[in-house]
Amino acid sequence: MFGYDWESLIWIGIGFGGQALFMMRFVIQWWSSEKAKKVVIPVAFWYFSLAGSLVLVIYAIHRKDPVFIFGQALPVVIYLRNLHLHYKGQGRSAAS
Question: Quick one: which of 81, 83, 58 has its CA closest to 69?
């Protein structure tokens, strides 16, 4: 199919899957903001960001693309930190 072997097609599927996860974060953010009638960044935004980046890092490592690896791996730390701050803040507000 299109001159690709099955392994290549699987990796292309993984790459597109990562892109789809990453794109869904914007759909979720838009939908949440529309419902709230104000700009909202739901926690699902960070989960989709993290999942999309991790899948894309795996894809980039497979492709041996250092620019792509760096561009997707560095934000993983930020997404993890934002999730940590979210749950840390929830515990703080629950204790109040």
Answer: 58
Sign of the CA dihedral 59, 19, 68, 30?
Answer: negative
Overall residue count recorded for the chain in this entry: 96
pTM of the entire structure?
0.83
**Among 61, 83, 63, 85, CA closest to 73:** 61
Give tens-digit pLDDT for 54-71.
Answer: 999 999 999 999 999 999
Angle made by CA atoms 77, 90, 82, in degrees to the nearest 5:
15
**Residue 30, CB half-sphere, CA atoms under 13 Å: how many?**
5
